[in-house]
Amino acid sequence: MRNKSFNVYPYAWLDEVIEITLNPEKTKVADLQSQQLEIIESKFDQELQEVLKDLKTNTFYLFSFKKIKAVVTQYYDSLMLLEHQAVQNLSAYPDDHPLAATGENIVLYIRDMGLAFKKRYGKYIVETTNAPNNTPPRPGLISKILCKLSADQIGIILKAADDTKVVIASSLSLVFRTIVPYLSTDKIKNISWDSMRKSTYRIEQTDKDAAIATLEKLIIQIRNY
Length: 225
What we know:
mainly alpha, 2 strands
């Protein structure tokens, strides 16, 4: 019996969002409100996860390398085309509009899903499309810098740096995405930038105290120069 998921286009909602809803050439995207963008961003990540589940379902009963390769390549190429349009959309967004942050996060969600595809199906993927890169590349094999703070404490300092414009980026997500992969702690070698970002939604007083104490040490050191 043929799996019914073969009859459903898995990228339908994602395509509509990228090609129409968030496409400045087809929609007055500047009229989108923050709440609308938050809903879109949240559902976008969920829909990408559903696509991966759909791919797993559609390849599970395939035993031919060629057939699996054909299905995987189709899914992967569609994802890359989605990324290509998302990057084009992002390049046209005004920096001072919430669209910029949403656009960046959507591109990052797509790229993370691309990495998930490659991790699971790398031997089947033949890349046939090329998408431009507007955002920082994910670091490969690099020497990480050990930080003597916890991930949550680092997150507080990065958030403060962004809020006070000590560092300037179009979104807080971009700050974490760019910096965190190069850091490690005593307990965590590979820190999740997204988990660190989410930890700043609820900041513990003990972590605030530790971050403040660290900054005070830096102040004393700078004064002694």
